Amino acid sequence: MPGTLKDLSRRPSLLTAGHRLCAGCGAPIAIRQLLLAAGTGLVISNATGCVEVGTTIYPQTAWNVSWIHSAFENAAATMSGVETAYRSLKKQGKVRADFRFVALGGDGGTYDIGFQALSGAVERGHRMVYVCYDNGAYMNTGIQRSSATPLGADTTTSPAGTRIPGKPGHRKDLTAIMAAHDVPYVAQASPSHWQDLVAKMEKALAADGPAFLNVLAPCPRGWRHESSETIEVARLAVDTCFWPLYEVAKGAWRLTYRPGKKKPLDEWLKLQGRFAHLFRPGGEAIRQELQAWVDRKWAELVARCA
After folding, report:
1. Cis status of the peptide bond prior to 59, with omega within 30 of 0
2. What is the model's pTM?
3. Where do the DSSP E strands lie in 208-278?
4. 4 pLDDT exceeds 80?
5. Dihedral Cα 281, 282, 288, 289, nearest 10 deg
6. In the chain, what are the domains?
């Protein structure tokens, strides 16, 4: 289990202040929490995206760990090569220090164009942790929809108007897809529940083989909520069961948080401008469909964890 907040606050910051990510961005909040669990001896492969662009504007870097910039689609493939080279050098006695390996990407570079590299890496069994910071769209390139975008969300490529009422179709359940790869550890986490997130990163790093973490990362710019509301938006995603917290360790599914009272999804939707059109005449049917989808997915997850 992770240490107390005081213990964690004494650990060195591996992602420094002064990066260029937006005020209230959920990604650096989550990444700082993840890095508190990691400690030293870490190598990170970072796909092109918000975090890469915002933390490494040449000639500066916000990272206090070994860090590699990968293309949008191949962070997992890059780290596969690094991890393989490390094992070879370790076997030859040319490297004695212990290192751990993390690949990092947004939902665009993970759910979509990076999925082939991710699936291949975990199928081959590379000992690495892949972390997806899920902000629900291609935020870095202009808020285009991704397969992580929820039904009805207004994006630049699924604009809410007379033709379509936002993004058609529900989001992909990538966490369950990764669990289907039968890897040692898979989990879903949120920066609103920091102890849960840190504990899951510790388990992922200790796994004897590949591990995958899917972490919610609210985006004030793309979700159109106040910068000060990031953690509240993340917490409501959990309490409405849109983003349930669970883990799959060696095939065993387990809820790591169950809301005392499951809140209606509207409480989460109404904080975000990307869903504002759903609260105007004609939008109720989509809100009802979203609620029904959340209810069904939650019931399936509870049954699976039982």
Report:
1. yes
2. 0.96
3. 211-216, 246-249, 252-255
4. no
5. -160
6. 5-305 (3.40.50.970)
